[in-house]
Design brief:
homodimer, 195 residues, alpha+beta, four-stranded antiparallel sheet, three-stranded antiparallel sheet, 6 helices, 30% strand, elongated, DNA-binding
DNA sequence: TTGTCGGCCGATCGCCGACAA
DNA sequence: TTGTCGGCGATCGGCCGACAA
């Protein structure tokens, strides 16, 4: 998984706990969130543990980033070890304090009907193209370059980036429709690019 | 699930036990079959229960027919209740002794490269068309009719059935390619029609 | 600045009989 | 009897600037 892209998709409010640190786990809240995300009601389908404490102090043993193979929805998996007090905490060697990197250079666009239709390509917002994409050779007629991009699963995609039309604009043409088809994108979905 | 089509696909050797009847369950054999069908080795991935009897007498409580939503592979799910002797058997009311119906009127064809290619339609074996399909009006030029068919999941598909060419032959044309695409059929796959 | 459209051209789809295995 | 092919017309994909919101 591309960690930086993962955090760009998760947004600036999502911080993951460090491995080895202490967190509180709230079983009831977790159960309710699972119920919502799987569209079941908590009482009918998800077991209830009435003797469980409302919050459990835990040490984080592992954190892994994931993205659904099919939908690219991002999520994280954490292994938690319940501890009774801070004395139980198992010291974990610090491998250089890997901080979660939240990228600052990115742009996100909600896809329009034209972006996802088979009739044409992807219209790149001007500021986004000028800030993030490698600069075009504007002496070419028209200015064109090939963009090679990697997704969350590190699959590569190549797009033709062209600056054309009247008035002039940035577009992704060849390669874009394959991307839309493979990811089954629809108008209203979002794409996010990072440098 | 279309029960009659399910049995046509399963073949004449597959009989399912009646609800309420007694069967023997073989854990080891089941484990080995799961290992084969999931392409894992029994020893490495599937738990071993050394204290389990080699065969368990069970009463059948439920039998449901299924087909994989994606691949249309058929399978059955059975709920078994272990019993120690025939005295434990729970009497189950007999709702008219629903026998598994094995249809006699059907035909099965392994798809050729031409059948699955986008270049044309489906070549219907003459005997199959004459035995199973509704008779064509041979006064038409050419004889044509619309065939409405239901699959295992009771989705409907419509095919244009035409009798043409030199020499004359039965073909499914319009609608066939959509079926091949949706089911992701390849040469070597089989299709089965029942009346 | 950018979403949608008409124009246009090439690629593919899909219906047809010819032919031969 | 039926699998594959060449021929062909219709449809679709996809690149272009025009235009307007």
């Amino acid at each position: 998984i591309n960690s930086e892209l993962w955090h760009a998709c998760a947004g600036p409010l999502v911080f993951l706990p460090q491995v080895g640190s202490l967190v509180y786990y709230f079983p009831q809240g977790h159960s309710e969130q699972v119920a919502v995300s799987t569209k079941r009601t908590a009482t009918s389908q998800i077991p209830n543990y009435p003797n469980l404490q409302s919050q459990l102090m835990c040490q984080v043993h592992n954190v892994t980033l994931h993205a659904d193979k099919d939908t690219d929805e991002i999520y994280a998996q954490m292994s938690l070890q319940p501890v009774n007090s801070e004395r139980d905490v198992f010291p974990i060697p610090d491998f250089g304090l890997r901080l979660s990197k939240h990228p600052s250079e990115f742009f996100c666009k909600t896809l329009t009907a034209s972006d996802t239709s088979t009739h044409g390509g992807f219209s790149v917002p001007r500021r986004a193209a000028e800030k993030l994409f490698p600069p075009l050779d504007y002496t070419m007629q028209p200015p064109t370059q090939e963009l090679v991009v990697r997704d969350l699963h590190d699959n590569t995609w190549t797009f033709r980036h062209i600056y054309r039309g009247q008035p002039k604009r940035h577009l992704l043409t060849t390669g874009w429709s394959m991307f839309v088809g493979s990811k089954r994108l629809r108008a209203g979905d979002s794409v996010l690019f990072i440098r």
